[in-house]
Amino acid sequence: MGNETTDLIANLPRKRMGAGVLFVDDEGRVLLVEPTYKDYWEIPGGVVEAEESPAAAAVREIREELGLEIELGRLLVTDWVPSGIYPGDGVMVVFDGGVLSAERAAAIVLPADELRSWAWCDANEIKRLLPAALARRVSGALRARREGIAVYSEDGYVIG
Question: CA separation (Å) from 57 to 18, 29, 73, 99, 107?
Fold first, then answer.
């Protein structure tokens, strides 16, 4: 590539990107984690690093956060997130982690410096523990999983 093209690409806007994984139990409850550095809960996952694919980031984050090696399921949600808690907009994706058996859940090991606890949560607990936009994203992921589709959302609101 010539210098003009290289300069143009170098100056294009950048977006934050995160990848999460939706795990459910036999009762359809969602696995949420409680970070030590935030005042709200989340689904497991984290930042997609430079030159890392979202799928690779999700697998890495589950290894780091829960101590589990997983086979990642399909993409459930692509969610555009406006500036708000963090400066600049971003794109968050959620992959299907499938049903996590009681035996597999018993093997979860949390990094004490990063996560305080984890819990299986129903729809009411999800609304209570998660920020509204993240609760909407999780709701969209549950719908996508149930209906065998992928959804696109903006700030957690499903489009289409």
Answer: 8, 24, 13, 20, 21
